[in-house]
């Protein structure tokens, strides 16, 4: 069975071109399934049947597993069963009739347009405060650079250092340039996330060469290795110009490579730190707590509210299915309904 798990993981990664996260999740689900099968007396893979699969899902339900997680685990079982049957490891595709609970899709939380604008302006306002003479605050006030505690994971992924030491970047650059550079970096990060609607992993994975400044288009490598071109606006271009001129050179070190967004120690900015940065600036701006994916939701919703075509939004977001994009139409309708209830005398 161990060999089957390894071969399935290789199939997902090399043939299906699934992301590392998807492969890890499916393999974890498969290990759980096979462990349950062994406990039920299924010692060989050909003995796996629909009854074992249903028993496995039923056990998940009794332990309070979320419906979305159960739906993913059922999908993993079906994918494995189909692959194992084609590979001759199973006599039949036993999971083909396996039903899974429909995941409850909650409407995503999005910012209003004015709240998004306040969030985008937060680093600029912080920069004006420090320019006014608050030099001590730059060294001690965490709101000036919220959430940026380093880029350890990013350095490891980018080949610029290790988890316990940054050999490529031995120290944060000296002087007042470092705090100012981090502010410019944070401003660009926010503008990219909201201005393009890219995923946080896509934003952190950008290289300088991925940005076409002449056409104001960024080349993004999305899920499944699919590449797409996403336009960005004038505010993002201004943030990009300032970052490339004054921010990135102040943080860059020999090990920075081609990364567009850098952490405080010069390595590629990692998604975990980026999430803390977004949450920190949301608190500074006084807007509801928002995640990078919340900014993606906000961008899509505001595009649709402004009259954008649903297919165009699908292309911008990199959704493989239009069904994934249609949820944002529900968000817009819900906002209209809320405004109606608040304003109409007969609501």
Report on this model:
- With 347 residues, the chain is mainly α.
- It has two domains: 2-86; 113-323, hpI Integrase, Chain A.
- It has helices at 2-15, 20-39, 50-62, 67-86, 113-131, 135-140, 152-158, 177-196, 200-204, 234-251, 271-285, 292-305, 310-317, 322-343, and strands at 211-212, 217-221, 227-231.
- A hairpin with a 5-residue loop joins strand 2 and strand 3 (227-231).
- Helix 1 runs antiparallel to helix 2 (20-39), helix 2 (20-39) crosses helix 4 and helix 5 crosses helix 11.
- The longest helix has 22 residues, at 322-343.
- The relative contact order is 0.11.
Compile the SSE list and pairings.
Layout: H1 2-15, H2 20-39, H3 50-62, H4 67-86, H5 113-131, H6 135-140, H7 152-158, H8 177-196, H9 200-204, E1 211-212, E2 217-221, E3 227-231, H10 234-251, H11 271-285, H12 292-305, H13 310-317, H14 322-343
Antiparallel strand pairs: 1-2, 2-3
Helix pairs in contact: 1-2, 2-4, 3-4, 5-8, 5-11, 8-10, 8-12, 12-14, 13-14
Strand order of the largest sheet: 1-2-3
Provide the helix percentage: 55-70%
Under CATH, the homologous superfamily of the largest domain reads Intergrase catalytic core
Net shape = globular
> What about the largest sheet?
3 strands, antiparallel
């Amino acid at each position: 069975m161990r060999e089957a798990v390894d071969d399935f993981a290789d199939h997902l990664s090399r043939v299906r071109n699934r992301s590392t996260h998807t492969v890890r999740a499916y393999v974890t689900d498969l290990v759980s399934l096979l462990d349950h099968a062994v406990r039920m007396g299924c010692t060989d893979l050909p003995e796996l049947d629909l009854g074992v699969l249903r028993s496995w899902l039923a056990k998940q339900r009794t332990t309070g597993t979320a419906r979305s997680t159960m739906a993913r685990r059922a999908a993993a079982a079906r994918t494995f069963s189909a692959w194992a049957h084609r590979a001759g490891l199973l006599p039949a595709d036993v999971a083909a009739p396996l039903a899974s609970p429909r995941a409850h899709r909650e409407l995503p939380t999005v910012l209003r347009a004015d709240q998004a604008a306040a969030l985008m302006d937060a680093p600029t306002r912080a920069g004006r405060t420090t320019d006014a003479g608050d030099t001590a605050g730059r060294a001690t006030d965490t709101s000036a650079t919220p959430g940026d505690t380093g880029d350890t994971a990013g350095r490891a992924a980018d080949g610029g250092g290790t988890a316990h030491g940054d050999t490529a970047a031995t120290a944060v650059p000296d002087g007042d340039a470092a705090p100012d550079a981090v502010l410019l970096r944070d401003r660009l990060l926010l503008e990219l996330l909201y201005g393009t609607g890219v995923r946080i992993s896509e934003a952190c994975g950008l290289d300088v060469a991925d940005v076409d400044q002449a056409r104001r288009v960024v080349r993004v490598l999305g899920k499944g290795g699919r590449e797409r071109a996403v336009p960005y606006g004038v505010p993002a271009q201004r943030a990009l110009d300032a970052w490339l001129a004054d921010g990135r050179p102040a943080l860059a070190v020999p090990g920075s490579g081609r990364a567009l967004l850098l952490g405080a120690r010069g390595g590629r900015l990692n998604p975990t730190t980026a999430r803390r940065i977004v949450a920190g600036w949301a608190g500074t701006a006084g807007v509801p707590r928002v995640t990078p994916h919340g900014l993606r939701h906000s961008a899509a919703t505001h595009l649709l509210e402004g009259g954008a075509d649903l297919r165009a939004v699908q292309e911008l977001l990199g959704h493989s299915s239009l069904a994934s994009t249609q949820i944002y139409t529900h968000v817009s309708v819900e906002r209209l309904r809320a405004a109606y209830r608040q304003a109409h005398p007969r609501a």
